[in-house]
Design brief:
The complex is a heterodimer of chains A (260) and B (235).
Chain A: H1 2-13, H2 16-36, H3 39-68, H4 70-77, H5 83-113, H6 121-148, H7 152-180, H8 187-195, H9 198-210, H10 213-227, H11 229-257
Helix pairs in contact in A: 1-5, 2-3, 2-5, 3-5, 3-6, 3-7, 3-9, 5-6, 5-11, 6-7, 6-9, 6-11, 8-10, 9-11, 10-11
Chain B: E1 2-11, E2 14-24, E3 28-33, H1 40-48, E4 55-60, E5 63-64, E6 75-78, H2 90-101, H3 106-113, H4 129-141, E7 147-151, H5 159-174, E8 178-182, H6 186-192, E9 195-200, E10 203-208, H7 210-217, H8 222-234
Parallel strand pairs in B: 3-8, 3-9, 6-7, 7-8
Antiparallel strand pairs in B: 1-2, 1-4, 4-5, 9-10
The chains are: A mainly alpha (260), B alpha/beta (235).
Domain ABC transporter (chain B): 2-226
InterPro entries (chain B): AAA+_ATPase, ABC_transporter-like_ATP-bd, ABC_Transporter_VariousFunc, P-loop_NTPase
GO molecular function, one term (chain B): ATP hydrolysis activity
Chain lengths: 260, 235
């Protein structure tokens, strides 16, 4: 698996897109920090961008990478390699290179700004950790979609729909149901609803840490009341981990049964 | 070396293989023939574990291949269409496959034989179809495995390379290897193969050498013998 990971990673490191993705974050981070001069505001803005953009890039790159490296995968399948190691290697290679672009792109301007001397260091690290989690989650979901769809166009379609659903539509439905059923106790429901969407979960996680009650919203407030800040952090990190684990397990199961 | 028992494969509703039994217990060159869509590639891919059979079993060197992957060390496979990652250089591809399968020095000889040295630093995406096929052949022959599977090895090759390929295949045969070949070029098959396995509608229709095939179909010429089988079944 490590060999496949290595080659996927090198292959991606040479691709133009990794650099574009890296430069985008570098620019965003620099502009936000040096024009704004307020660290916690910059972190909140970055959070809003990361929470929407990272899942989008993760799904699109995941689907694109899978379909583009199909021939290569077939070449590897005829070699004495386990199927698991081929697909997990490619998955990890892609996720790691995307995470690296994110961490370096945002990390460099923050280090230059002097994040190590500031007390926002933990908020900032949490932001990067969440970004990494989201990358791994959505790349895994993208691999699931492309493993289940031979047709490239269909695969792309489902991937974009998935992102649209989790990033935008889900919140809408969620909010509507909260308004519709406002006469009933909704604490448990809203807790559950947050856990089922990794994007909401990440947002809650960061806002809990930043401790900005105004931005927490209803679910965030329930989350905080129910779990308290530190326990809430642990629960949401755990849930994000589950969100990586389940799609990854499905990659293993699905790839074992697939014909090439 | 290769034992296939009652192999079935169905893709959705399309029954491709419907009970293939094939035992190959000695070295030699075996040509797998059949019309388009008769399941040649599916059979080969099942042996390689790329296609998972619906029913039946395959044994390679006495071991069932189900949930096994180490057996692929004993097989060299030449895929039908040579598709490689486009932004990789030829040299890097060789290095990578050697890294995965273990080191060998045969590649230098083969690069020399097929005159590939001017292409070593080129990207695979920029190579012509014939050159890609040569790269493909080098990748396949550089490991000395006891089983060789060649799916349409002659595609895109110029006459000189074709002659070299034939020599190469014969040389491998003298080492006692089992070589499976599919091809639609009958003169090539006739020239090189020891035994014919004819697939028709997902089953083995005929197995034997070329003389047997000629007498069975009462045709003096190999190409016509194959054609007569097809005519009889299409009629």
């Amino acid at each position: 698996m490590l060999k496949i990971l290595k080659y996927s990673f090198y292959d991606l490191m040479r691709s133009r897109w990794s650099y574009i993705y890296f430069l985008f974050y570098l620019l965003l981070g620099t502009v936000l920090l040096f024009l704004n001069n307020d660290l916690s505001k910059a972190i909140i803005t970055l959070m809003n961008v990361i929470i929407i953009l990272v899942p989008l890039i993760g799904t699109i790159f995941g689907v694109m990478y899978y379909y583009n490296s199909k021939e290569f995968t077939e070449l590897l399948l005829a070699q004495p390699l386990k199927r698991n190691s081929i697909f997990l290697g490619q998955y990890l290679g892609l996720s790691l290179s995307l995470t690296m672009s994110l961490v370096l792109g945002i990390g460099i301007p923050f280090i230059l700004y002097g994040i190590f001397k500031s007390d926002s260091i933990w908020n900032f690290s949490l932001l990067l950790i969440t970004g990494a989690f989201l990358t791994f989650i959505f790349t895994a979901l993208a691999f699931n979609i492309s493993l289940s769809n031979e047709n490239k166009i269909k695969g792309f379609g489902y991937a974009v729909l998935l992102w649209l659903f989790l990033a935008i539509i889900y919140d809408g439905i969620f909010l509507m149901s909260l308004i519709l059923f406002e006469d009933y106790p909704l604490d448990k429901l809203s807790l559950f609803g947050t856990m089922l969407n990794p994007i909401d979960l990440s947002r809650t996680l960061i806002l809990l840490k930043l401790d900005i009650s105004a931005l927490l919203g209803y679910t965030g407030a329930v989350f905080k009341k129910f779990f308290g800040t530190s326990f809430g952090l642990i629960v949401s990190l755990f849930m994000l981990f589950v969100w990586i684990l389940i799609p990854t397990l499905r990659i293993i199961v699905k790839s074992k049964k697939k014909d090439f | 070396m290769v034992v296939i028992e009652n192999l079935h494969k169905t893709f959705q509703k399309n029954k491709v293989l419907t009970g293939v039994d094939l035992t190959i217990d000695k070295g030699g060159i075996f040509a797998i023939l059949g019309p388009n869509g008769s399941g040649k590639t599916t059979l080969i891919k099942s042996i390689l574990g790329m296609v998972i059979p619906t029913q039946g079993s395959i044994q390679i060197m006495g071991k069932n291949i189900k949930n096994n992957w180490l057996y692929r060390k004993k097989i060299d496979y030449l895929p039908q269409i040579a598709n490689f990652p486009n932004n990789l250089r030829v040299k890097e591809l060789f290095k990578m496959i050697k890294d995965i399968r273990g080191n060998t020095n045969t590649d230098q000889e083969l690069i020399e034989l097929f005159k590939l040295s001017p292409f070593l630093n080129k990207k695979l995406g920029n190579l012509s179809g014939g050159t890609k096929q040569k790269v493909n052949i080098v990748l396949t022959f550089m490991f000395n495995s006891p089983i060789l599977i060649l799916d349409e090895p002659t595609t895109g090759l110029d006459p000189i390379s074709l002659i070299r390929l034939k020599e190469l295949i014969r040389k491998e045969k003298t080492k006692g290897k089992t070589i499976l070949i599919t091809s639609h070029i009958m003169s090539f098959v006739e020239e090189i193969s020891d035994e014919i396995v004819f697939l028709l509608e997902g089953k083995i229709y005929f197995r034997g050498n070329i003389t047997q095939l000629k007498t069975q179909t009462e045709q003096p010429n190999f190409e016509h013998a194959i054609a007569s089988i097809l005519k009889n079944t299409y009629a």
